């Protein structure tokens, strides 16, 4: 599929999107990469400083909720392929403002699908709408079992309901209008450039600043964690070698109960910050649970492993070390993103706990 050269990445100023944009810009000089992002609180062009001057990279500030702009950009730039990551991505925010999630994640995705359908109607050969989604669409697991690509959707939070809906629309556009698509559903990502409202960067940031570490419920929620660069390698593979109209589950084969993960994080941070062993763990504070909190997610990633040869390249400990080092070396980035509106959100989110 290398003859297609005009690739639209949506949400490329966010956490995962910026790593996708960097890999595609650096690895495929023959592609023109267009990064479309509305720069919400989660989008940050600082994430892309190293590639912003690259010849094959263009930033387009636009909102996927604005159908007219999206149509116009498809007309003007003639994208052949889309990697769609733009989304409202934080579960807690979806509980306080579900409509924002329907707007961007559902309607925004529809706007992109409609634009692609119109632009590609003459010839869908070698076109692709690659939709990036989450394992949260499958709902919650008991103590055993894994999500596979055929697990029924059973979303529990407004975030996962909006992502599930967008997945269904992508598949429906494939079936109804013949739009070539791929969907991948990935487990929890962590790594550099993640906005510090998500568990791992939030806790790194709080440990650095001697602030409480708010642990939901009994701390026994279980998640599968994947280093962001391993997710991006999987996206690269699925984009180039995946079967059209297929879904791939991506996961780290790496399940952790929150409290065990947090204790490991505290131990590594104690060493990095020259603190006494056990010092950071003293900051752990149990807080009121998140409503509708899914107990356990676990991905069976054997399809992408067997069919495309993908597997994670780093262990959890290695990935966490790299992540912590990045946050310790990028305090200015952290200061910038935690200023202003984020502070209000943070105190609103945790003040009643
Ligand atoms: P993020 O919140 O860090 O970034 C989202 C980006 O989308 C930001 O740059 C933001 O400015 C942009 N955006 C938001 N609304 C927009 C709009 N209306 N128009 C244009 N741009 C808009 O999110 P992330 O964690 O990087 O997640 C990226 C994608 O991957 C999402 O679709 C998410 O559902 C999916 N995903 C995330 C994870 C995870 O653990 N973070 C796991 C699996 C799947």
TrEMBL record:
Assigned EC number: 4.2.1.46
Domain NAD(P)-binding: from-to ranges: 8-323
Naturally occurring in which organism (per UniProt): Salegentibacter flavus
Annotated protein name in UniProt: dTDP-glucose 4,6-dehydratase
Lineage of producing organism: Bacteria, Pseudomonadati, Bacteroidota, Flavobacteriia, Flavobacteriales
Superkingdom, taxonomy of origin: Bacteria
One of the record's GO molecular function terms: dTDP-glucose 4,6-dehydratase activity
Cofactor(s) needed for function: NAD(+)
Database matches in Gene3D superfamilies: NAD(P)-binding Rossmann-like Domain, UDP-galactose 4-epimerase, domain 1
UniProtKB keywords: Lyase, NAD
UniProt keyword annotation of Transcription present: no
Similarity field: Belongs to the NAD(P)-dependent epimerase/dehydratase family. dTDP-glucose dehydratase subfamily.
Example GO biological process: nucleotide-sugar metabolic process
Pfam family, one: GDP_Man_Dehyd
Catalytic activity from the UniProt record: dTDP-alpha-D-glucose = dTDP-4-dehydro-6-deoxy-alpha-D-glucose + H2O
